[in-house]
């Protein structure tokens, strides 16, 4: 009888530990303050960003999302995105519409920045503003990863999307910038 109780308690302890373990992946969960801000009624307001050109440089070194395996380096200057002014709708029942640019997310291979278009509270388009493109390998990875991530974001209507295998570094930056844009849109 003692063995049965010990085995049962051990099993329960192990299950509790397994379910409470946090993984190291970026789940893109919104913060409590973002959820509270999204629930509040919106009043007329404007937000203006004053962007500046960004220059990134890096040296390739192997691994996923890496620069060339030959150790090549490169510098890319990405033009500044145009300043965006949005005026969220007011009144009960109205939803936010406009274009919102997320904060740039610095990753191991370069900066990732995302812009979303919102219509009546729904994400209708996700556009990468900045992403690693220093070499052919970056172009190859992002050529297939960015469209997949965009479709996932539109389908999920949130930043809770799966990372793309082989583009985990870019995916992490994408999710981080996407969450920032969603927070700015109060979705």
TrEMBL record:
Q: What is this protein called?
A: Uncharacterized protein with FMN-binding domain
Residue ranges, compositional bias (Low complexity): 41-57, 72-102
- Gly residues composition bias: residue spans: 58-71
Listed InterPro entries: FMN-bd
Species classification: Bacteria, Bacillati, Actinomycetota, Actinomycetes, Micrococcales
What would you give as a GO molecular function for this chain, any one?
FMN binding
Q: Where is this region: Disordered?
A: 28-106
Species name for this entry? Oryzihumus leptocrescens
- Kindly indicate where the leader peptide sits in this chain: none
């Amino acid at each position: 009888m003692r063995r049965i109780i010990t085995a049962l308690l051990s099993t329960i302890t192990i299950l509790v530990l397994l379910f409470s373990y946090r993984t190291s992946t970026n789940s893109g969960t919104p913060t409590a303050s973002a959820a509270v801000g999204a629930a509040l009624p919106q009043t007329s307001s404007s937000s203006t960003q004053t962007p500046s050109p960004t220059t990134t440089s890096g040296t390739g070194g192997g691994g996923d999302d890496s620069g060339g395996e030959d150790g090549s380096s490169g510098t890319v200057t990405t033009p500044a995105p145009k300043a965006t002014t949005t005026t969220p709708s007011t009144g009960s029942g109205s939803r936010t519409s406009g274009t919102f640019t997320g904060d740039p997310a610095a990753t191991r291979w370069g900066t990732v920045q995302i812009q979303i278009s919102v219509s009546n509270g729904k994400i209708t388009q996700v556009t990468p503003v900045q992403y690693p493109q220093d070499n052919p390998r970056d172009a190859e990875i992002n050529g297939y990863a960015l469209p997949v991530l965009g479709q996932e974001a539109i389908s999920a209507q949130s930043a809770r999307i799966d990372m793309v295998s082989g583009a985990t570094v870019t995916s992490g930056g994408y999710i981080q910038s996407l969450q920032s844009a969603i927070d700015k849109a109060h979705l």
